Amino acid sequence: MPREEFGEAEGENRWPEPLRARFARLGHRLIMAQPDAY
């Protein structure tokens, strides 16, 4: 999965692959739901 799509600097390694795949689809909605996780 392309790293540039995710914030590698903060918390990116905390996301398991299934969640990161869903995160790419949900986009800002998941960021707004989990602001500290991004």
Descriptive notes:
There is one protein chain. This protein has 38 residues and is mainly alpha-helical. It has one domain. 42% of the residues lie in helices and 0% in strands. The radius of gyration is 9 Å and the shape is flat. The model has no long low-confidence stretch (mean pLDDT 63).
Give a short summary of the structure.
The chain has 38 residues and is an all-alpha fold. It is 42% helix and 0% strand.
Return residue spans where pLDDT drops below 50 for at least 5 consecutive residues: none
Going by helix content, strand content and strand pairing, the class is mainly alpha
| Count of separate DSSP helical elements | 2
Strand content: under 5%
The total domain count is 1
Provide mean pLDDT, rounded.
Answer: 63
Give Rg in angstroms.
9 Å
Helix content: 40-55%
Shape: flat
Please outline the major beta sheet.
Answer: none
End-to-end Cα distance, whole Å, is: 16 Å
SSE ordering: HH
* Beta strands, count: 0
Keywords: Plasmid
Which helices and strands appear, and what pairs or packs with what?
Layout: H1 17-26, H2 28-33
Main attributes?
2 helices, single chain, mainly alpha, 38 residues
